[in-house]
Amino acid sequence: MLPRIGARAVRESWQDRFADTPDVLRSARHEQTIVPVLDFEIGGSEFITMAGPCSVETEAQLLATARRVQRAGARILRGGAFKPRTSPYSFQGLGLEGLKLLDRARRETGLAIVTEVMCETDMEMVAEYADILQIGSRNMENDSLIVAAARTGRPMLLKRGLVATVADLFRAAQIALDNGNSNLILCERGIRTFETSMRNTFDAASIALMKQLSHLPVIADPSHATGRRELVPAAARIGVAAGADGLIVEVHPDPDTAWSDGDQSLNFEEFDAMMASLAPWIALREDEMRLRGENDLHAAEVAG
Ligand code: PEP
Ligand code: MN
After folding, report:
1. Cα 137 to ligand 1 centroid, rounded to whole Å
2. Shortest CA distance to 143 belongs to which of 161, 124, 125?
3. Contact 154 CB / ligand 1 (< 6 Å)
4. 172, exposed or middle or buried, with CB in 10 Å at 0-12, 13-18, 19+?
């Protein structure tokens, strides 16, 4: 029967809407997940920045970038050794050589490494070098890759697919959880919409939504979300304000000569300036988390 005009609509609950991914949702059983990486954590009080080139190109490129992003406050070095590319004729990544360079950068700087794994046959090799296994947007619906990554026991960064809904991303996360890996980080990296002036449309509200609904840490990727380096700092601020636990940002010594994603990569000075401009926003976030923690404590005391 149709509701009568003027009748109150029944608001669908989030629990019903995401009923097929119960373990991704925040609940009494699933409190905030904190992912340990080297000597720090993702999803806790510290805002974590991951930065580095889209692709690992050369030793000089990677080490120079690692040193600079570390100095500016990044905790994690990003860099693809295996690259999913739109064109089969584009640079496909250095493979094992790239992983070895990432390892060298980790030893020199103490930064953790996040790098993408594209197929199951590479899994063991990539997991040996990566502190965090990145599942790229194009593979978010590759269930067998997610299962294989989950079973390595390594923390995973799960990027939202190009045309995936939040529910689709949650389903991918549920697969990793079902396979025994709860060290999962979700990433909003922009989605395809009718807007074509930017590479993707940054779905900032999805960050707020995922933070409210899920216990998993959520990070923002302002680089792939916009595709334009001049928009990256603003999108990063929006990510922090939306409640993200961290960022993943592309940085290159000379973006115009980058072998991939140069248009959206910041140079060192631009990255330094972005990090400085984010500091007050990150401080606000930390204040808010402290307040929320105190309120929770107070509520627990009143209830107890
Ligand atoms: C990347 O991080 O360089 C990348 C390929 O990202 P995405 O999978 O989000 O396109
Ligand atoms: Mn990229």
Report:
1. 6
2. 161
3. no
4. buried
Q: What is the DSSP pairing of strand 184-188 with strand 218-220?
A: parallel
C-alpha 250 to ligand 2 mean position (Å): 7
Contact 158, 176 (CB under 8 A): yes
The amino acid at 63: L
Ligand closest to 138 (CA) is 1
For residue range 201-252, list pLDDT tens digits in order. 999 999 999 999 999 999 999 999 999 999 999 999 999 999 999 999 999 9
- Residue-wise pLDDT tens digits, 110-143: 999 999 999 999 999 999 999 999 999 999 999 9
3-state SS assignment for residue 113: strand
CA angle, 126 then 130 then 131, to 5°: 150
Question: Could you identify the atom of ligand 1 that is nearest to the CA of residue 160?
Answer: 9
Cα–Cα dist 58/91, whole Å: 13
Q: Which of 188, 221, 252, 264 to mutate to test the pocket of ligand 1 (most atoms within 8 A of CB)?
A: 221
Contact assessment for residue 54 and residue 258, using Cβ atoms and an 8 Å cutoff: yes
Residue given tokens 């396979």 in the structure block:
179
Give the H/E segment covering residue 134.
Answer: strand 132-135
Token pair of 266 as six digits:
């910041």
- The CA–CA distances, whole Å, from 71 to 26, 185, 240, 250 equal 35, 24, 20, 16
Written in H, E and C, the secondary structure of 184-248 is EEEEECCECCCCCCCCCECCHHHHHHHHHHECCCEEECHHHHHCCHHHHHHHHHHHHHHCCCEEE
Residue 91 Cα to ligand 2 midpoint, Å, equals: 12
